[in-house]
Amino acid sequence: MKGVYHTTSRIDGLGICAGENIKKGDVIQHIKGKVRFKINKNKRDALSHPNWVGLKKNKWIDPDYPNKYLNHSCNPNAGIRGSVTMVAIKNINEGEEITVDYSIIEGDHMWEMECKCGEKNCRKIIRSVQFLSERQFKKYLPYVPKYFQEIHKRYVVKQFKNGQ
């Protein structure tokens, strides 16, 4: 596991940064925290816990420090292996903010958020995994949790059957 710390972020107030150089493929952290079960009844419910990391349908982790400060980027440098292991998807320099595309850890179709990442490829509005383009989704593999891979696959098949 790699050393990380929280610090100010250009993305959203606080973020987590690499305390050392991290090579592509290295495990950064295991996301730990209290497991929460919640059924979202509407969009407001879906947006009520922006720091939670999805595990399965209606099941999330409310991450402990420092991962509570993990920010989204449309050009992330980390992904998730398994369901809670954060892995570098590219080399990360010491002092660089560690980011994940929140779309790969959220499956609720009502969830969305305004993006503040500032990347050239910023999507402006971030939605759950089923709304990722096929190209974007494949770029993150294999670092998309299996549950969210299945959601994306079902959505793509459904779109194909509906002729979209």
The fold-level CATH name is Beta-clip-like
Strand fraction? 25-35%
* Overall geometry: globular
Mean pLDDT: 88
Helix content: 10-25%
CATH H level: which superfamily? SET domain
Q: Sheet bearing the most strands, described?
A: 4 strands, mixed
- As laid out across the biggest beta sheet, the strand order is 1-2-10-7
Query: What class would the helix/strand composition place it in?
Result: alpha+beta
Radius of gyration: 15 Å
| Termini Cα gap | 43 Å
Domain module tally:
1
* CATH level 1 class label: Mainly Beta
Q: Would you identify the regions where 5 or more consecutive residues have pLDDT less than 50?
A: none
What CATH architecture label applies? Beta Complex
Q: Helix segment count?
A: 3
What is the β-strand count?
12
Brief characterization of the structure:
The protein has 164 residues and is an alpha+beta fold.
Describe how the helices and strands are arranged.
Elements: E1 4-9, E2 13-18, E3 27-30, E4 33-37, H1 43-46, E5 53-56, E6 59-63, E7 71-72, E8 78-81, E9 85-88, E10 97-100, E11 112-114, E12 125-127, H2 134-140, H3 146-161
Parallel strand pairs: 7-10
Antiparallel strand pairs: 1-2, 2-10, 3-9, 4-6, 5-6, 8-9, 11-12
